[in-house]
Design brief:
Helix content: 25-40%
Shape: elongated
Mean pLDDT: 83
Strand order of the largest sheet: 2-1-7-6-3
Number of strands: 29
Structural class: alpha+beta
Strand content: 15-25%
Length: about 750
């Protein structure tokens, strides 16, 4: 092969190649274009001695570059074998146009012989590679495998290198940051701890480690910065979730202290364990934190079993490493490990380190201790269980409170009903009776609200839906609220839709919503106020608007008006009363019907408007005619046994039923009730539940067992009104379940229907 052929052969080679003769001056006979560019030379060097073209840098003391290279050439000539030189400093002269000075360069060098047919060295192939390029490639492979974000900034704050994890955390496409300025891409960093620490590392050349919140991403980051030759290097991770868990457990101090101790070098800058294994499953590297856990000073060459792992544990990691080698994809897992710091739980990831050709050359891994996180999660689960138990206790308390309140309310309602019927025409007592009835009904409504909001919070409240017309709902609500409206001297205007608006809903609950709104309007308006109720159809919904000329609400306070126990901040100058649950209950009931309830006000002194929207029914319905009204004394020919250990409740109920024409007997307890039942043979038994010695359930079971042929109807009349109480009453043999204080008109209608049943 002649000189011209050699030049054609190496010219376009992708490597940095130089071909020299094995003569005294080692004259240059060819070079690749890559070599010429890297050394700032051209084809004019061909035919010249290599050391004439590339002399030592005269400014370098004890320069030995040409001496070392000549020794390597002579070794190739003597041995006829390739010689790989250690990394050499061999400075290169810049072009004359650039000043002609020498620039510092480091090279890895391989000199190989080209032998003739008779085995003599015909040429020497001189192959070089910049040492910094190789080192950078190896470093990038490791940095691309770690589970932390990493980037470097030059002294002008431009991104120089950004690893894959950093792009993922920051939500950026690969290559979209390199060359851009940090403060332009993330202006929200200015004026924060990020800027202070970055500038400290850049200008004072000091490492920093901190955890801070970046408002631009709404995240917490753990960040470590190191001074670098070209600027700074930054490691970071998304610490938002650990930061939230920190609120449950005081682990930040320990974690920060651990991080501070291990942030000493690039690979020791993370609280995680960092390690590298070769393809034979032998350790190459472990950071200081992991060395302490393993309890060794050096891991090189050791396998899992050498590091104290049990056989099953070692086999698992060996299999995972083989999978990474085979698939070139990361493997992640979680496992307990007992080391020098005891048994802990770790989350880990094995990732492939790829060579220039894409082959797996090593396996890098990181491991994180998640013991404290799991402990925090367990603490949260235990706290949730305690809250559930507290919620159950609250429901039991409300049920008991309701029961205890209903017991004294029952004789009050019975006595008032009797007074109304016996003395209703007396003008001296009529006003007093109206006041007492209104306040008693208010007490009953408060007790009902307590239980209903508890049922709703547990999802236990059921609706009894049927076709109902909106005007009927409004009129039913007015029957409840009209006494309060009249007492305050308010003017009420009804502007209801001319055409019927039918909805599918629970008439009682829907009337309750409107009544709550009417009551609020009456309470929060000065005397003589104006209340307007309107209804219309709109976008497939029936709409009911209730507007008042009252005190109004500040707009920012409107959302809170629908929260539990919120009674607003309105000073109406009138007693407002209530528990602050009416609007919360009303909105929830509207939502259960598939509707909405919203409030509006232009501000204090400008009145309020509440708007209820309910889906219109698919088909219009026509209400069936209601039952004919009955006379006040139409319970003749029916025998009733009243059983209640509360004398006032039993006596007052007996008197009103007797006044209505029923034949009534009263028993003070369960055993007495069984004796009276045997002699009296009543058609109906109104039976209290919560009695001493023998409760109502036991009495009902005894009647059903002892008198199997009796046609008696058993009606539970009790302060216990939960759904579970109704089911238990049914299981005990009751036919009906009424909650104290019973509505006398409703009880009268029930007894009449029982009497008239053949």
């Amino acid at each position: 092969m002649n000189t011209e052929q050699i030049q054609r052969f190496v010219k376009n080679a992708p490597d940095l190649l130089l071909v020299v003769r094995p003569d005294e001056g080692f004259c240059i006979v060819g070079a690749s274009e890559e070599y010429l560019r890297a050394t700032h030379t051209d084809r004019g060097i061909f035919g010249r001695p290599v050391f004439e073209v590339f002399p030592d840098n005269p400014a370098t003391v004890d320069a030995r570059s040409t001496q070392n290279l000549r020794a390597s050439f002579e070794k190739v000539l003597a041995t006829r074998q390739t010689d790989a030189m250690p990394t050499q400093r061999y400075d290169v002269r810049r072009p004359a146009a650039a000043g002609g000075e020498f620039e510092e360069r480091f090279w890895t060098v391989i000199n190989a012989p080209v032998l003739s047919e008779d085995g003599e060295v015909q040429y020497i192939l001189h192959r070089i590679e910049e040492a910094s390029a190789k080192a950078k490639r190896d470093a990038v492979a490791i940095l691309e495998s770690i589970t932390e974000g990493f980037f470097t900034l030059d002294r002008k704050w431009r991104f120089d290198y950004v690893n894959r994890e950093a792009h993922r955390i920051l939500g950026r496409e690969r290559g979209s940051l390199e060359g851009r300025t940090l403060w332009t891409e993330y202006p929200g960093l200015e004026g924060t701890i990020f800027e202070r620490m970055y500038r400290r590392t850049m200008h004072e050349r000091e490492m920093s480690s901190f955890t801070a919140f970046y408002a631009g991403h709404d995240r917490w980051y753990e960040v470590t910065t190191f001074p670098a030759h070209e600027g700074i290097s930054v490691y970071f991770r998304d610490a938002t979730e650990p930061k939230r868990l920190q609120a449950e457990r005081e682990r930040l101090i320990a974690a920060s202290e651990t991080q501070r101790r291990i942030y000493e070098t690039a690979l020791n800058s993370t609280p995680d364990f960092v390690y590298v294994f070769d393809l034979d499953h032998r350790a190459i590297y472990a950071n200081e934190a992991l060395l302490k856990v393993w309890g060794v000073d050096d891991v090189r060459g050791k396998r899992w079993m050498d590091l104290g792992y049990e056989q099953w544990h070692a086999d698992r990691h060996d299999a995972e490493i083989d999978e990474v080698i085979r698939t070139r994809a990361p493997v992640r897992g979680e496992i307990p490990f007992t080391g020098t710091n005891g048994t802990r739980v770790y989350d880990y990831i094995f990732a492939p380190v790829l060579g220039p050709g894409g082959e797996v050359v090593a396996i890098a891994g990181t491991t994180r201790d998640v013991t404290d996180r799991q402990a925090a999660e367990q603490a949260l689960r235990e706290q949730a269980a305690r809250l559930a138990e507290s919620d159950r206790a609250k429901d039991e308390f409300l049920a008991t409170l309701s029961h205890e309140l209903r017991n004294p309310l029952a004789p009050l309602r019975n006595s008032l009903a009797l007074l109304r019927r016996v003395d209703g025409a007396n003008p001296k007592t009529e006003r007093i009776q109206v006041i007492m009835e209104r306040q008693l009904n208010h007490m009953v409504r408060l007790v009902d609200d307590l239980l209903e909001i508890s049922r709703i919070s547990r999802g236990a409240l059921s609706l009894r839906k049927e076709p109902v017309e909106v005007s009927t709902i409004v009129h039913n609500a007015l029957e409840t609220s009209e006494p309060l409206i009249q007492a305050a001297g308010h003017r009420l205007a009804l502007e209801l839709a001319a055409a019927p608006l039918w909805v599918e809903g629970d008439p009682v609950r829907l009337a309750q919503i409107v009544a709550n709104l009417l009551n609020n309007a009456a309470k929060y308006s000065h005397e003589g106020g104006h209340i307007t109720v309107r209804s219309w159809a709109e976008d497939g919904h029936a709409v009911v608007s209730l507007r008042d000329t009252g005190l109004g609400i500040e707009p920012e306070a409107l959302p809170r008006m629908f929260e539990m126990f919120s009674r607003g901040h309105r000073d109406s100058g009138r007693p407002q009363g209530g528990l602050g649950i009416g609007l919360a209950l009303s909105r929830r009931l509207a939502q259960m019907h598939g509707g909405t309830l919203e409030g509006y006000s232009e501000g204090l002194g400008k009145g309020s408007e509440f708007v209820l929207r309910l889906p219109l029914a698919q088909h219009e319905r026509h209400a069936a005619p209601g039952p004919a009204a009955s006379g006040p004394q139409d319970l003749d020919r029916i025998t009733v046994l009243v059983v209640d250990d509360n004398h006032d409740a039993g006596d007052s109920l007996g008197e009103i039923l007797g006044y209505l024409g029923a034949d009534v007997r009263i028993a003070r307890g369960g055993r007495e009730a069984l004796q009276v039942f045997a002699d009296f043979q009543p058609r109906v038994v109104l039976l209290d539940i919560g009695m001493p010695e023998m409760n109502g359930y036991e009495v009902a079971q005894a009647i059903r067992a002892g008198f199997p042929d009796s046609p008696a109807t058993l009606v539970a009349l009790t302060g216990w009104g939960q759904d579970s109480d109704r089911r238990r009453a049914q299981d005990a043999g009751f036919d009906h379940h009424l909650v104290k204080p019973a509505d006398i008109d409703g009880l009268q209608a029930l007894l009449r229907s029982i009497r008239d049943t053949v």
